[in-house]
Design brief:
Length: 293
């Protein structure tokens, strides 16, 4: 059990890039204005959802339905901490929230992306990386923090969506059996994953394919594409260490020591998943979202 706890040890109480970043302003007036508009609209959208919760609570109180009230309160907490929308939310509100949040995130990423590219052209990698970390923090505030690492007692019995922090897309196994990122469609079991626990690590198994994430041939080369292979996850190439950082998760291969990341591919509409050196970037951080079954 002590070894199992090691696999889920926290790397500090809060991720380093969350500390200090919150108190710092964006580096220029354009990004300050863009970020302020993003935060203001995110607050309005969240207030809309909380108003729907208030109405649901009032209805449950009026009916004297304590069971329903407890469920609503639990769902409210999940939205506050993880930005998971309740299943009973009206379709028009759900569509409005999802559409505007998606558009706002896209605009934010585009604006910051231009600044980050400009810094890299000037070979100012420190400023580019700092800007990427600030962007990731802004997105976290809007999208929520996901869950903490699964509990020892039940983590193997829970299905998850595994969401990338930077892109807001989720892991999926496509029709070719490749591991890619796609928009969320929660009914698609190709996007469902479960964890298989070992002494100091976990394997990550796709619920439809029943195969696990694998570093091919145990490669230690950055940008190696991650594949699906065996079903039991007992091979060293298939074992991963999960580290929680500010309620995001870094997924590190025990074999290579590299972390799961979104591939930096130009002109390719399909985003694949690779291993890279850990630079604490948003594309290298993941959110585990439990699926109600």
């Amino acid at each position: 059990m002590n070894k199992m706890r090691t696999a889920f040890a926290l790397v500090g109480s809060i991720c380093l890039f969350v500390q200090g970043v919150v108190s710092q302003e964006p580096p220029n007036p354009t990004l300050r204005s863009l970020s302020a508009r993003f935060a203001q609209d995110a607050e309005k959208l969240h207030k809309t959802i909380f108003s729907a919760f208030d109405e649901a609570v009032q209805a449950a109180n009026k009916q004297g339905n304590k069971k329903q009230l407890a469920l609503i309160q639990a769902e409210r907490s999940r939205f506050a901490n993880q930005r998971i929308l309740p299943v009973w939310l009206k379709d028009d509100i759900r569509e409005m929230y999802s559409s505007r949040m998606s558009q706002n995130c896209e605009a934010l990423i585009s604006g910051w992306g231009k600044h980050i590219d400009a810094q890299r052209k000037k070979r100012d990698e420190a400023s580019a990386r700092h800007a990427e970390l600030m962007l990731g923090n802004l997105l976290i505030q809007a999208r929520g923090y996901g869950i903490a690492l699964p509990s020892m007692a039940d983590f193997q019995n829970v299905r998850f969506l595994i969401r990338n922090v930077e892109t807001d897309l989720v892991m999926e196994v496509n029709d070719k059996g490749e591991l890619v990122l796609e928009p969320e469609l929660i009914t698609r079991t190709r996007q469902h994953f479960r964890l298989l626990g070992f002494d100091e690590s976990v394997a990550i198994q796709n619920c439809e394919e029943r195969r696990v994430l694998n570093v091919p041939y145990g490669s230690k080369n950055p940008d190696t594409k991650i594949i699906l292979y065996s079903t039991d996850g007992k091979d060293a190439n298939e074992k991963w260490r999960l580290s929680e950082e500010g309620r995001q998760i870094a997924i590190t291969s025990l074999k290579s020591g590299l972390v799961l990341s979104v591939a930096q591919e130009i002109g390719n509409s399909t985003l694949s998943i690779v291993q890279q050196f850990d630079q604490q970037l948003p594309r290298q951080r993941w959110i585990f979202e439990p699926i109600n079954q």
